[in-house]
Amino acid sequence: MSDSTIYALSTVFGKSGVAVIRISGNEVLHILSKMTDIKIATIKPRRAYFCTITKKESSEPLDKAIVLYFKSPHSYTGEDIAEIQCHGSKAVLNSVFKELGMFENVRLAEPGEFSKRSFYNHKMDLTEADGLVDLIDAETSEQQKYALRQMDGNLKNLYSSWRNDLVKILSYLEAYIDFPEENIPENLYADILNTVFKVKCDIEEHLKGNNVNERLRNGFRIVIAGKTNAGKSSLVNALIKRNAVIVSDIEGTTRDSIDISLDIGGYPVVITDTAGIRVTNNPIEQQGIDIALQKIEEADIVIALYDASNENTDFPYVKNNNILYVANKIDKLTDEQKEKLEEKKHILISAKFNEGIDRLINDILNIIKDRFATSSNCLITRARYRNALEACLENLSVFSLDKEIELAAEDIRLACRQIGKITGAVEVAEVLDNIFGNFCIGK
C-alpha cells in the first residue's frame, strides 16, 4: 500500500452550501499546521475547529471552514485523517486542492483508495466494503436496510465462522502430516467429518434459492403478459401513476418490451410491458412477441392480464410459479360476473379507472416479502460471493479422510481460500482492484 498522504472531495463537486474534503496519511498534521491557524501541539481528535483555510506559503485566506481531526488508528482508514468542511463553490474547492497538491508526498486519491486503506488496516473486510457501496447506491428503504446489515458485519461473521471451522480442521490435518506415524484419534476423526458436513450443509442452504439478493440490488422482475388490447400498457401507467407508455385501442401498438423501475413497499421492482401475444404474420410484431415470451420465462412475477368481458383466462405460455391472474376492464361487468371471477381468486381491476390497483400492488408486495421470509437475513449480495462459495462447496464435496492426508488437507486448504476471497482473509490483488475500483474518488 502506498505511504503517500491522499486527499479527495467526499461530496459532489459543484455549487453547494458545504463541501467535505478528506485527507488521510502521515502528513495530515503538517498540512493543518501550514494551511490553518489551529495549534497542532494541542489539537484534540474528534473536536470541531472553526478556522481560516489559507495558502501554504503566503497565508492568504481561501475560506472559512470547520476542520475535524481523527487520530490513527481511531479513524475510517486507520491513519490520521482530517476533514475540511468548507463552502462548496468551485473556486474554493479548486484553490484548496491546488494548495494540497503542492505538499510533498501528498496526492489526489484514486477511486476507492480511502476504503482500500481501511481494508488494509483491518478496519473493515471486503463484505463490509461491498455493503458500503450498496448503501451509497441504495434507492429504496429495503436496499438501505440490508446494506446497513452487511456493513455491520452479518456476512463477515457468517463467512468467517465457516472459515474458522475449516482452518481448525486444517491445523489438525497439518499436525498429523508432520507426524505420519500417529493415527487420528476416533473422536477427532468424527469431529472433523461432522464439522465438514455441517459447513457443507450450511453453505448449500445459504446458496439454495438465495437469488433474492440480486433482485434486491437490481429489482424484482414483474412482467405483464396477455393478449392484444388486454390493457397491459394502461396497467403499467396505473401502477407507476403516470403516462409512461402509449395506450391505444389499435391492436399491436406495443411491439417491444418496455422496462420501468418502481419502488413497491421499499423493494425495487422492474415492471415490463410486453407485446400482446397473438398469431401474426408481421415479422416485426412477431419479434416483439418472441421477446415477450423470453421476458415471461425470466420473470419473478407474471401478471396474467386479460379482458374480463372476454373471460379468456388461458395462458399456456406462462410457466411461472408466481402468477397473478388479473381481470381488467371490470367496469364493463355485472356484479354476478364479478362474483364468478372472485371465486377463481382472480384480482379484479379497471386500469382505466384506477380501480383495484392498490390490491394488486399489495399482492405483489406479499409475494416479494414471502421471498425474503424464506431467505436468511444474510443475503448473497455479489456474484463473486456465490462463485467462491460454489467453489468452496466443490472442494468440501471431494474431501475424504480415506485419501492421503496431504490430499485431504489440500481440499480443506482450497475451501478456506475460496471463503477468504470473499472476506479478504486471503489477499487476491485482482479481486481487490475490481472491488475498490468501483468506488467514487472520495470514498
The named CATH superfamily of the largest domain: P-loop containing nucleotide triphosphate hydrolases
Class derived from helix and strand content: alpha/beta
CATH topology of the largest domain: Rossmann fold
CATH-scheme architecture of the largest domain: 3-Layer(aba) Sandwich
* Topology as a string of helices (H) and strands (E): EEHEEEHEHHHHHHEHEEHEEHEHHHH
Described by strand count, sense and barrel closure, the largest sheet is: 6 strands, mixed
Strand segment count: 12
Compute the separation of the termini in Å: 16 Å
Overall geometry comes to flat
Number of domains: 3
Biggest β-sheet: strands ordered side by side in the sheet: 3-4-5-2-1-6
**Helical content class:** 40-55%
Residue stretches low in confidence (pLDDT < 50, at least 5 long) are 246-255
Q: How much β-strand is present in the residues?
A: 15-25%
Overview of this structure, please?
The chain has a 6-stranded mixed β-sheet. Helix 6 packs antiparallel against helix 7, helix 7 packs antiparallel against helix 13 and helix 13 runs antiparallel to helix 14. The protein contains 15 helices and 12 strands. Strand 3 and strand 4 form a beta hairpin. By secondary structure, it is of the alpha/beta class. It folds into 3 domains: 105 residues, Gyrase A, domain 2, CATH 3.30.1360.120; 141 residues, Four Helix Bundle (Hemerythrin (Met), subunit A); 159 residues, P-loop containing nucleotide triphosphate hydrolases (Rossmann fold). The two termini are 16 Å apart.
